Amino acid sequence: MGENLPRVPGGARLRCDTLGRPVQTLRVKMVLLGGSGVGKSTLAQRFVKDEFRMTTPTVGCAYLTRVVHLSNVSLRFEIWDTAGQEKYHSVTPLYYRGAHAALLVYDISKRETFIRAQVWLKELEKHYIEGSTVVWLVGNKGDLEEDRQVSVQEGQGLANDRGLFFIETSALSGDQVSNLLIDVAHRVYECTGAQQGGLSEWQEAPLGDLHHRDTSSLMTSCCKVGP
Amino acid sequence: MERDNHQEGEAQGVKISDPPSVNNPPGDNLATSLSLLGNHMFPDVAERNDGASISKEETPVSLCSDVTAEQQSLDAELHSNQVTKLETEETENSECFNDVCTQQSDGGSEGAATDNDQSDSGEFVVTMLAKAKLEEQGIGVKGRSSPLLEAGTQESPAFMSHRDEDVTAESWRQHRKHVFVLSEAGKPIYSRYGSEEALSSTMGVMMALVSFVQSGDNIIRSVYSEEHTVVFLQKGPLVLVCVSSSRQSERQLRGELLYVYYQIISMLTQASISRIFEHKKNYDLRRLLAGSEKILDGLLNLVDSDPSFLLAAVHCLPLASSLRDSLSQILQKAITPNLVFSILIANNQLLTIVQEKTVIEDTRLEPADVHLLLNLIGASSAFQAGEIWTPICLPLFNPDCYFYAYISYLDPPECTVCLLLLSTDKEAFYAVAECKRKIEEAMVAQNSLSLIAKVQSYSVSQVGVSDLRHFMYKPFDVPDNYRQLTQFTSPEMEAPYSSEEEKMRLLDLYRYMHSRIHSTSRPLKLIYHVAERETLLAWVTSKFELYTCFSPLVTKACAITAITKLLRWIKKEEDRLFIRYPPKYSTTPNPSKSSRGGKSDQQDATDNGFLSLL
Ligand SMILES: Nc1nc2c(ncn2[C@@H]2O[C@H](COP(=O)(O)OP(=O)(O)OP(=O)(O)O)[C@@H](O)[C@H]2O)c(=O)[nH]1
Ligand SMILES: [Mg+2]
Question: Rounded to a whole number, what is the distance in Å from the CA of B304 to chain A's nearest CA?
C-alpha cells in the first residue's frame, strides 16, 4: 500500500515512513460498547487526548477522532463512544454497524457489567461480526483491585472461548490504554487494512488546519511500534 | 368593596393597553390610569400569612377568591368537589405553558374556606407524608428490592447529586421545592432530592391519594397547607407531584411539572412511554431514565433560576444585527437534506436559529422545546467531548417522534459556542458533520468566534433610568407579520441582586407579579407593588408583557416616566435584543414531514425497541 503514492490534499500531514516514502492515512471505525459507567468515555478521552476528565453519562453517542501512526501507515480512528444507558440501546446498532473494531468494556469491580458485556457480544455476533470486526474485551478500572469482582482469569477465559482479544486497563491512571490502542491499530491493519476494500482512505477536508485536534502528539507515543 | 376596586383596576388596565409608539408614549396612558386609580387600586395580597411576608401592603386584603377557591379541606368527603376541582380538558394546543386552565370556580366553596380549613388539609397531607416516612425507615433496611438497581445507583459516584440524601432528615423536608414522578402503579420514577427507592412509600401514599380521588371520578389537582402547596399533574401513565414552599401559584407549579414531563418525553417519546405501560403496568421506568437524573435536576434548577421558563419565552443574546445576520447566513448555507433546524448557542443563550421552510410551514418552534434542548446541553458536559449524535424528541413539536441531533462545540477547549443541528434522518451523521465543517470554516473566515466572544448581556444602566434596577420585557410577535419563537429580553441582574439569594428573591417577586397578572379567576393588566426593598410594576397589553423593578423610593410618577423611556429604548434597540427575522432554508426537496407526519410514519419512528426490553 505504501508503494502507491498517497494523496494527502492538506499537505500538512504528509508523513514519510523510515525509507522516506509518503504514508497513507486509512479510516478505522471503532466502537465502544458496554454498560453505563464502565468508563467508555473516560477511555475515549485517554485515546484522544491522553488525559483524565470527569464525565457525565453520554447522550446518544459521541464521535471522536485520533490518528495513530504505524511505521508504514497512518490510521485515523473514528471512535464511536456509545451511551451505556438502557434507553439508548435501541439506537446503538446505528453506531456499531460496519465497525472495524469493537471494544466491549466492563468494569472489573462490577460483575453485572461483565454480564452486560456478554449481552453486547451476543448482539454483535448476531449481526455484524462476520470476521470483519476485531473485538476486544476490555476490563476497565483495573486500579480498583481491592473491589475486584471479575478476575483476570475469568475475563481472559471468556475472551479465549469467544475468540476475542483481552486486556485490562485503567482509564483513571492511563495504564495499558495506549497499548490497547496500538494493539487495535495493528490488528485492524493486519486483518482488514491490507484487504481489498478493507479500509478506505481518509480524504482530508480542504481546511486542514482545523483538524489539528485529530493529530495530537501521537508520533512520540506510538509511531515507533511497528509490526 | 375591595373587589370593586379590582374590577375598576382591570377596566382601566384594558384602556391602557394601547401599543406603545413614539407618538403616543405609553407612559402617558399609564400615568393617567395610575393617577385615576389612586393609591388603593393595586392592593397587594398576602396570599398566605406565613410570616415571611415579602411585601408592604398598600391595602391589606383578605384572601382573594382564586386562592380560597382552592382551599379545600381534605378530611371532608374526599370524593366531593370540595377536595378537587373537576379538571376541564387541558387545552392541548401548542401554547401548553400558557394554557388557560379553565377551572370551575365552585361557587359554594368560594370565600367559604377559612384559614383553618387550609391548615387542616395541609396537616393531613403532611401527616400522611410523615407517616409514610416512618415506614420508610423500615423499608430502607429490608427493602433492597433489586440488586441491579442498587448497583445502578452506586455505579458512579460522580453521577450522583442529591440521590444519597437522607430522606428522614429535617434538612430533606426543608427543601423549597420537591418534585416527584411516579407511575400510575405507584412506582417511583424520579425524586429531586433523596433516592426514589427510599421514597417509595411516600410516593405510594401520593398515588393512593391520586387514585382515591380518581375513584370518585375526579382528578386531584392541588392541596394547600400553611407552608406548602402540593400540586398534582397526571400525564398519560405518569403522575407528577410538586411539594413547594415557594409562594408560587398552582398554575406556575403545574407549568413546571409540565416541563419535567416534557423533558422525560424528550428522551423517551410519549408514544413509547404509553406503549411500555400498556404492556406492563408496573414497569420500572427508572431503567430507561437511569443516568438522566442530572438532566431533570438541571431542569429544575433552571426552572427556579431562569425566568425563561416562567415567561415561556426564549432569551437570546443581544447581538449587533449585522453579526447576527452573518451568522444566520453561515447556517443557511451549510445544509443537507432532511436538516430542519440549525441553532447556534453561546453560554446557553441563543445566537441565532434557522429553520427548514416546509417542515415548519404550519407550526413554529416552541420556546419550551428550545428550553429543553438548552437544558440538555447545559446539563451534560458529555457534549464537550467530540461530536454528539443522538435521538431527541421535541415534545411540543411532536411528542411521538425523534429528531437526530448533532451537537458540537465550536470553540474547544473553552466550549462556550455550541452548534446544534437537527435532522429527521438518523443516518445523516456524516452529512450533518460536514455541515459543521462548512460552518466552522465560514466562521473562521469571518472571524465570528472572536466577535461572539466579545458579546455580553447588557446592563440596565444602558437604559439610562436611574431608579430602574431590572426588567423583563416579552413582546408578542415581533415583528407582527412573523409567526415566530416567543422571546423576551432582560438585562443582567446587578447589585443589589448579585448574590444568589437576592436574585432568587427578585425572581420570587416576579413570579408573584406574574401569578397575579395571570390569575385564572381575576387576571390583572397592571400591578404596582410596593415591597419592602423595591417597588415593582407589571403591565400586560396586547403587544407585550413587562415586569419592572425599581428602587423602593421611586414615586409612581417616576416609574411611569421610566417605563416610557424604557419602552422607547427597547424599540430603538429591538434589532439587537431580538432575533427579528428568523431565517429559513429549504433542505427537503420532497418534504417528508416525517417528524410531524401521519400515523404510519410515527409508528415507524417510535419503534425504538424499548418494547424488546420488557
Ligand atoms: N477508578 C476508576 N474510575 C474510572 C475509570 N474509568 C472511568 N472511571 C470513572 O467511572 C465513571 C464513569 O465513567 P464514564 O467514562 O463516563 O462511563 P461511560 O462508560 O462512558 O458511561 P455512559 O456514557 O453512561 O455509557 C466516571 O466517574 C469515571 O471517572 C477507571 O479506570 N478507574
Ligand atoms: Mg460515556
Answer: 22
